[in-house]
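In response to a reviewer's request, we include the raw inputs and outputs for one of the modeled complexes. The two entities were modeled together in a single run.
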Amino acid sequence: MTEPHPDAASDPLSRELLQSVVEVARAIFGAQASSVFLYDEAAHELIFQAVSGRGEDRLVGRRFPAGQGIAGWVVSSGEPMVVDDLAHNTVFDREFAESTEFVPDAIMAAPLLHGDRVLGVLEVLEPVPQSRSSLGELDLLALFAEQAATALRVVLERRVDAPRAARERAEALDLVGSLQRLLESGTPTS
Amino acid sequence: MSGAPRRSAARLSWNLRGKGPDDVAVVADGEPVTPAWAFEGGAGRGVRVCVVDSGVEHDHPLVGRVDGSWGVVTTESGPEVRESADGDACGHGTACAGIVRRVAPECELYSVRVLGERFTGTGDMLMAGLRWAVRQGFDVVNLSLSTTRARFAAELHALADEAYFRRTVIVASAHNMPVESYPWRFASVISVGSHQEDDQDLYLYNPAPPVEFFAPGQNVTAAWLGGTTIRTTGNSFATPFVAGLCARVLSKHPRLTTFQLKNALYLSAANVHIGTGGAP
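The model returned the following C-alpha cells for the whole complex.
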C-alpha cells in the first residue's frame, strides 16, 4: 500500500469519507469525474483531497493556484457556478485541465462553506447533458455541497485532533512503560 | 380602518422554483406604467453602468467598448482603487458586462475589479470597490456578488442607502445558496434572482421578497474570456439583465429617482397588473 500524499487526509476514515462524497457526486450528476478540494488560505492554493473518475490515481495531494478559473471564482465569491460549452473554448482553464489530462465540456462547482468561510470546493466534471445549466441542478449541487462541506469539516477536525491523539497515545505508552518498570522493580525476589 | 387587509407577511421566497408568471400574478395600485413607457425604445444611451466584479475583458465582441477599468489593490494603508488594464481574472465579470450590453446596447460600460488574483473572500475588496463606484456617481452598478461576512452588513447597509440617495442604483444578485449574505437583502438596492421560463426578455416582480425581481438566469449564453462564449446558469446572470433594463429606463427618463426607477420596473413587470389606482 502506498503512503498517502502529505497534503492528503492522513487517516483512512477521512479518506474514505471524502472518497464517498466524490463517488456520490459523480453518480448524482452522471459525471465523468468529481473532486473535492481543500482551500489553503495561507498559500492561496487548492489541494485535491479526493477524486472519483479520471485522474483518481494521481491527483490527490496536487496543488494549484486558487486565483483563477471556475474554482478560483467559487473560492473568492462563495457562489456555486455551472458552465457548459467549453469544448471549443480555447482559453478555458486549459493549463489546469491539461495538467489533469482532461479538458471537460462542462463544469459544475460549489463552495464548501462553514459559516462565512470557504473551506474548499466541490467540482463535478462533464455531467450528463440533462444535468447541465438548469436551476434545479444548480440547487441540487448546492444542496449536496452542504453535505460535502460537513464531511470536509469532519476531516479537518480529525486532522487537528490527530497530533493530540498521537500525544495521548505516547503518554499512555509511557505510563504503561512506567507501570511495567514499577512492577518489575517491585517484584519480590523471594 | 376598513377595506381589504394589506398583504399579510407572506413566506419569504428566495427563488421561483416550480412557479411560473401566473403563480405570482400581482394586482397593483399605481400609475398605468407599461414597458412601452418605461423602457421600450431606450437603448441606454448616456447611462453609465459599472460592473463591480472580476474585471471585464476589453474588446470582447459581446461586450464592445469598455469606457473605463479600475481594480482594487492592497496597499499598506488598506485597499485602494486604481486604474487597471488587467482585464478579467476568471470570466464572470465579462459575462455580466456582455448581458448588460445585450440589453442596453448604447450604455457606457465601466469595470471595477474586486475579485481575482489573491483576493480571498468578498469583504474588504468588495466594500472598497463598491464605495468607490457609488462615489463616482455611476447611474447603475451591477453587483453579481455578495458577502456572507456579517461584520460588513452594517457598513454595506449604510453604503446602499448612500447610493440610493445619490441616485446610483445598485442592482444586486441574490445568493444562489440559502445562506445569509449582503447587500442584496437591503430594500435600498434592486435585488435579482432567476426565473425558469424560456424567455430571454421576461422579467417578473416577486410578491414575496427579499428577492424583488426575477430575470432570465437559466441556460444563458454569456461572454467569456478570449472573445468566447459559454452557457451558464445562476442569479449572477439574471442581475445584469435588470441592470441593463435600468439603463434603458434611465436613458428614456433621466430624471427618475431610484425609488421611481424601482417603481417603474415593478409596474411594468410581466406579472404585475394595474388594478384600481391611477387616473380615473
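As requested, we also summarize the result in words. DSSP finds four helices and six strands in chain A. The mean pLDDT of chain A is 82.
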